[in-house]
């Protein structure tokens, strides 16, 4: 059986992975289980250079809807015509495979060196969930998990992508800092619910990104109100406009205010993203995500316009 990690350590550090094109489907092998104890080598692949914009979807707090936002934002970008990938950076609790109906998928390698991303809903998808069972990943220490994630990123044969949406784990620890410092990240999107306990963690995430000089492109207020599927009545069960006020405090745009709706949870559990529904153009929820995607694209464009190189005069 093909040993993914053993092959990888033999590879020359100057060899760009994207030059090794996958062989035919019949020659494809299954990548073997990743061995975290052997981790330690620096990433050696350059496939990542084909990714134009890396966007981190983060929050300080768990369970506020990062993964749900990442999936729907990514599929909305596809609907906008953007070539988009989705990376599940939640090493300890990957949920992207399930949300995209890929729970049974395993990483495959075409060239014995790099992994092919899975395809779902028009996205190129990678997750540690395709390599190890979650119960194994949970015992990794912080640096091990960070190293595993970097290898996952750099050893994936990414196609040309306009956007790579990264579904971050909760918190502001090792993994967040490693990704922020070791990847060329365009910006971050902060997801929060409107209640105080989530807002204070979202604020920590904003401060962390400011410290590592990653632009925060906007804030998504998830579960802003509950919308009754029978009568349409709206109720702000987690409080009103907490996210909007936090965004105002840090002068960030609000990319969307999303309802708490049974259908969103159902789509995630069934592994069928909203945008695969029959008529997304007529779907109020899809429209909200579509607006979020358009807003994000504008923020990225704006960033490109405002990031003019600084001219430094010196005596040399
Ligand atoms: N707007 C929403 N309406 C209904 N259910 C939602 C909504 N947003 C998220 N959920 C549900 O809430 C749960 C948590 O969402 P999700 O997994 O996206 O959060 P997370 O921030 O990624 O969590 P973690 O920090 O554990 O990674 C899931 O069951 C999801 O389906
Ligand atoms: Mg998640």
From TrEMBL:
Residues 1-31 are annotated as: Disordered. It comes from Alkalimonas collagenimarina. Residues 14-29 have a biased composition (Polar residues). The keyword Metal-binding applies. PANTHER family: IRON-SULFUR PROTEIN NUBPL (PTHR42961:SF2). ATP binds at residues 60-67. SUPFAM superfamilies: P-loop containing nucleoside triphosphate hydrolases. Homodimer. Binds and transfers iron-sulfur (Fe-S) clusters to target apoproteins. Can hydrolyze ATP. Pfam families: ParA (PF10609). The keyword Hydrolase applies. Belongs to the Mrp/NBP35 ATP-binding proteins family. InterPro entries: Mrp-like_CS, Mrp/NBP35_ATP-bd, NUBPL-like, P-loop_NTPase, YlxH/NBP35. This is Iron-sulfur cluster carrier protein. It comes from the Bacteria. Keywords: ATP-binding, Hydrolase, Iron, Iron-sulfur, Metal-binding, Nucleotide-binding.
